[in-house]
Design brief:
Layout: E1 2-6, H1 11-22, E2 26-31, H2 39-50, E3 55-59, H3 65-75, E4 79-82, H4 91-94, H5 96-115, E5 121-127, H6 151-170, E6 174-179, E7 182-183, H7 192-202, E8 206-209, E9 215-216, E10 219-220, H8 221-232, E11 256-261, E12 267-268, H9 269-280, E13 286-289, H10 304-310, H11 318-333
Parallel strand pairs: 1-2, 1-4, 2-3, 4-5, 5-6, 6-11, 7-10, 8-13
Antiparallel strand pairs: 9-12
Length: 335
């Protein structure tokens, strides 16, 4: 297939592109290479992809409608995976407009490009952040998600609503994927694993929020990629079991689906830090701090819908994934 990936120089996008190329797909990468985090890492991911047959790339932002539409017209994709977004919960408190520009205006441009070119299937990244103030665990795609606690989460919920509208009005098949705390080699420098590894190796103290008591459903990047591919290959149709008198947010009479992709084995932050210390062979100096605004105490994924429809659920133990990341970090940064 010909598959267009937005955010192709990002953590998940680059890993997905490699897997699709491995199986013989043609991949067109689209990314603005912004400086939200170290651009050198994005270029390093992209350089590896550019060496591969079947990969093409253009630099552009989702908000840049002419460049985005030109990329669609040049490549003629059959399916699209939208992973480009302004990421990060905490940054949304500092620069809210970046989230509206990339995640709302930009996503509208993606939807319009898909609608007018008869794209077979749009798969897009949502986030576990949409569960917001919910406290019933594990989080299920059938749950209401009307209480976001960050603008980032609100922008992702907005994506789900926009996608449903296009699925309903224009019969554009869409699948939204709520990713749970992704980690692994080539990861994002603003995420805890990257930050902690860098600081522990440098002998610097680490900030441990919520005193290390909150839990996260840490999900290994290759498991996320497998979930993306399983859902990309399964074009949704109207759900024959959908009942408009008792509607579920997870499906529709339109060709629309939502899935959680998470490891469904939550780990306390303090335990996560222990695993990083073990992999590095060094104890961290910890600054214990309260929970930050916009963060939630716990996340846990109910992946029964993903398992039911694709036969897949993530299963890489955090003990394995953390070790692989630390080994990659040491090699990449020559530490």
């Amino acid at each position: 297939m010909r598959i267009l990936i937005t955010g192709a120089a990002g953590f998940i996008g680059a890993a997905l592109a490699h897997r699709l190329l491995d199986r013989g797909d043609e991949v067109f990468g689209y990314d603005n290479l912004n400086d939200y985090y170290d651009v050198r890492l994005k270029h390093a991911r992209l350089d590896r992809l550019l060496k591969r047959d079947g990969f093409r790339f253009v630099r552009g932002a989702l908000e840049d409608r002419p460049t985005l539409e030109a990329a669609f017209d040049d490549f003629g994709p059959q399916r699209v995976v939208n992973l480009a977004a302004q990421a990060g919960v905490r940054y949304s408190l500092e620069n809210p407009r970046a989230y509206i520009d990339a995640n709302v205006v930009g996503f509208l441009n993606v939807l319009e490009a898909c609608r007018h070119r008869d794209i077979e299937h749009l798969v897009y990244a949502s986030s576990s952040s949409v569960y917001g103030a919910n406290r019933k665990l594990p989080f299920a795609v059938e749950d209401s998600v009307d209480h976001p606690v960050s603008l980032y989460a609100a922008s992702k919920k907005t994506n789900e609503l926009m996608a449903h509208t296009y699925s309903h009005l224009f019969r554009l098949p869409t699948t939204g994927l709520r990713f749970f705390t992704v980690y692994g080699p080539w990861g994002r420098p603003d995420m805890a694993l990257f930050l902690f590894t860098r600081k522990i190796l440098a002998g610097e103290p680490i900030d441990v929020f919520n005193y290390g008591k909150h839990t996260r459903d840490f999900t290994y990047v290759e498991d996320i990629v497998e979930g993306v591919i399983r859902t990309l290959d399964r074009v949704p149709g109207p759900d024959p079991a959908f009942d408009p008198l008792q509607p579920t947010p997870a499906s529709s009479q339109a060709p629309y689906r939502l899935y959680n992709i998470g490891n469904h084995r939550p780990v306390q932050l303090s335990r996560y830090i222990e695993l990083i210390e073990q992999a590095i062979g060094k104890t961290a100096e910890k600054r214990l701090l309260p929970l930050q605004p916009g963060d939630v105490p716990d996340t846990a994924a109910d992946v029964s819908a993903l398992m039911r429809d694709t036969g897949y659920s993530p299963d890489t133990p955090v003990e394995v994934g953390v070790g692989r990341f630390v080994a990659w970090y040491r090699e990449f940064y020559q530490v």
